[in-house]
Amino acid sequence: MTLSQLKTFIAVAEDGSVRAAAERLHVSQPSVSGSIAALSDEVGVALTERDGRGMKLSPAGEVFLPHAREALGLLVQGTRMAQSALAKEQATVRIAAVYTAAEFVLPMLLRAFREAHPEIPIQLEIGNREHVLELLESREADIGICGRAPDDGVYEGLRIATNAHVVVAAPDHPLAKLEQIALRDLGSETWLVREEASGTRRLVDEYLAGALITPPKTTIGSNSAVAAAAMVGLGVGVVPLVAVGHQIAAGSIVQLDVVPSPPSRDWFALLPVRRPSPAARVLADFLTQQ
After folding, report:
1. Which of 88, 133, 186, 269 lies 20 to 30 A from 35 at CA?
2. Closest Cα partner for 192 from 224, 234, 242?
3. Average pLDDT of 182-204?
4. CB environment 182-205: b (16+ within 10 A), e (fewer)
5. Is the same domain home to 31 and 60?
6. Domain limits at 25?
7. 140 with 183, same domain?
């Protein structure tokens, strides 16, 4: 089993065809097909299967994919750490954070960390929860910051802060000045929600399902955009309080007094259970103490 075979397998999985994988890797199509065949022979099962004119992973290939990504990522991580050791420098901590954490939670924390550990460089990438977990899985990130820790045993979840959520609406919304609004009475309101891969979207779906209501929904790509849309009267939405506290204080958006209120979550730092980066461990421990 070679690095080239793993890279080729991952490229086919992500691009969906031998041709696309060959173009990405700058090799011939027969080379891609040969690598996949050799890898399948070594694993002992077919990892791919035909899908029309393209190629998709077999059930065995779907199971093998996260392990291939992790193996390749570990080798990349090991290379970075070895090079840093030679240069007598700390390896860069690659952080993957969900949008709201990156915008409103991490800036001050990372500033304090840099002051405490100026020897550890920091790199930050932002995305939704699904993207954060993909980067951790492939070891393209050393530590993840998101609002819910997976329970699969792959990651260690360290609580770093409380993540309260609120229902918001425009200041002139008919319910803006009412108290004790029953959630079930908002079933006819348009709810502004995040995309399916978002942790906030899952929270909202569970919140509404608990009240046995299925209101109309408009999908919007970030919590800040949800708040902006609610502010101009496009609907109501659930957003992290940290993202809209300043707007509520300024009166540009209102927090509806809904009963029950949305559930609170915690912000977590996620570290791989297997071979976490030492520098990422330093950062995670620092965050839990703030």
Report:
1. 133
2. 234
3. 93
4. ebeebeebbbbbbeeebbbbebbe
5. yes
6. 3-64
7. no
